Model the fold of this input.
Amino acid sequence: MSPFWVSAFLDLAAPDLERGLAFWSAVTGYDVSPRRGATDEFATLVPPDGDDFLRVQRRDEGPSRIHLDLHVSDPGALTEHAVALGATVLARPEQGYVVLASPAGLTFCFVRHVCRTRARPAAWPGGGSSLVDQVCLDVAAPEHQREWAFWRDVTGWELVDSAFEELHSLLRPTGQPLRFLLQRTDDAPGTPPRIHLDLATSDRAAETRRHVGLGARVLSTHDLWTVLADPGGSSYCLTDRDPATGLLP
Done:
């Protein structure tokens, strides 16, 4: 049973919440929904078309991070499957969703919320376009192979090799908002894994200038991507991939 939708939750540390919301709203061109939750800890970035796939919550303990929501019709059944593949159940809140950790320790949830329509890329002055369309799972070498096998099997998506030996991707089904990229890092064994967002853009140079103007910092520049940090210090990438297809030109 593959997820019918995948969304990313930006778990922002409390001091980063307001500037993080403003930054990612401006970067994507998405409105911020009314706050919700017992202490107004949740919000959604709402695209002008299509269903939402980026959500935000205030994290009162620990640094900012990203976790994934896999939208499924039967969280219980998928939980049994994920546990058999090596996941650990962290919580079963009364609202019906299930919180788990992957074999390497990445947090994710099985939820029921129904979404179907992928948002279109945002168009910017000057003719460029961009879209948050990929999550990159950064995992140290000792855990990397087990981790990509886990995500392949829990999603049911086909594993695809890349031109870079440290990268693997999962073939995104038609209509899904987010691609999966799995990166083997040079971190020391035992380094906690992490997730970062990747944007596809038709004009990386112009998009980099726009992001810097909104408060981002450039960390490094490569042939096909640029690494930046948002105002809270969390890294993300701008890539030369086509915003419509997700593929390199």
